[in-house]
Automatic annotation (TrEMBL):
<dbReference type="InterPro" id="IPR051052">
    <property type="entry name" value="Diverse_substrate_MTase"/>
</dbReference>
<dbReference type="GO" id="GO:0008757">
    <property type="term" value="F:S-adenosylmethionine-dependent methyltransferase activity"/>
</dbReference>
<keyword id="KW-0808">Transferase</keyword>
<dbReference type="InterPro" id="IPR013216">
    <property type="entry name" value="Methyltransf_11"/>
</dbReference>
<keyword id="KW-0489">Methyltransferase</keyword>
<protein>
    <recommendedName>
        <fullName>Methyltransferase type 11 domain-containing protein</fullName>
    </recommendedName>
</protein>
<dbReference type="Pfam" id="PF08241">
    <property type="entry name" value="Methyltransf_11"/>
</dbReference>
<feature type="domain" description="Methyltransferase type 11">
    <location>
        <begin position="100"/>
        <end position="191"/>
    </location>
</feature>
<dbReference type="InterPro" id="IPR029063">
    <property type="entry name" value="SAM-dependent_MTases_sf"/>
</dbReference>
<comment type="similarity">
    <text>Belongs to the methyltransferase superfamily.</text>
</comment>
<dbReference type="GO" id="GO:0032259">
    <property type="term" value="P:methylation"/>
</dbReference>
Amino acid sequence: MWMPKVMIHDVNTPEVKGGRSRYKKKVLIQLSNIGKRVLAQTLSFQSRRQLTDMSKNWALFTNAKQTELYAQYRPRYTEEVFKTIIDYCGETSSDFHLAVDVGCGSGQSTEPLAKHFRRVLGLDVSAMQIAKAPTNIPNCTFKVNKAEDLSSVKTGSADLVTVAQAFHWMDGEKFFAEVDRILKPGGSLIIYGYTTCSLTPKELDDYFQKFYHNVLPSYWTGGRKAVEDSYTCFSIPYEGWKRNDEMKIEKDLSIDEFVGYLGSWSAVNEYNQKNPPGNILETVQHELKNINQSINKTDNKHATDLRVTWPVFMLMGHKPK
Ligand SMILES: C[S@@+](CC[C@H](N)C(=O)[O-])C[C@H]1O[C@@H](n2cnc3c(N)ncnc32)[C@H](O)[C@@H]1O
């Protein structure tokens, strides 16, 4: 049987500890061409360097297996998430004509907007992700389009722009300039996502956290740090913008399903590519099942073995009227 090339130890890697202080350095980028409005974003030197590096890595989302696992296993956002988005839009506008979801992936963050808006546009740089998006929602259109050039969307036409779990891949400066152009006055920009999950029971979480912190760090491309920090390094360039850190996504899964979710992670893909042959997730699956058996003293036939909790973070801003 294939054995892992790494041991999962109980020590924090330098990658996990070291990035934090560098990360605190912030720089305010003034975008002079946007006119009167305060259009600036706060990004750390570290994260900006990472964003540049990451724009070369769009190829990560062109791996067929990963996009398939992505569509199948990525968590869906809750009703509460979409209610929060809709309520926020309603604070400054009663128009619900057009929502644009940028970095839409296979449509997890796009589809639920179709109930609330007359038209919804899902845009993603990866053709492979767009190919997995639903085709049966009459008022939803999906297109291959990068965040930094939204010229396919008319100036002043959008009531809402969303970015879910994707902003850390983008060039924030160019994206914000485009958002400001396409939003109507009083329209909203909402950037959200979920940070690293935790598991119950605790025994499974202990194993998972060791895998996450000790095996994967060097296989993530840089923007992962922003996700771990719930995007506290980013801000929305509209005065009065706010955060919501109250929500979470919870799902009861079998170990096989949870391992399917891990298979949608770019770092797992990277790990497997750089450490052939085999798949690190075979080991993770085997270990989680062993631990589960030792806790339950059963033969592991439960429909769900664990609860996964993802804390949700959200940044929300209104374009001034
Ligand atoms: C983690 S997925 C998020 C998908 C979906 N929004 C969700 O919440 O599940 C990130 C997506 O961002 C897309 N992406 C990355 N950089 C992008 C860019 N510069 N412009 C548009 N999409 C981008 C990737 O192709 C990928 O589909």
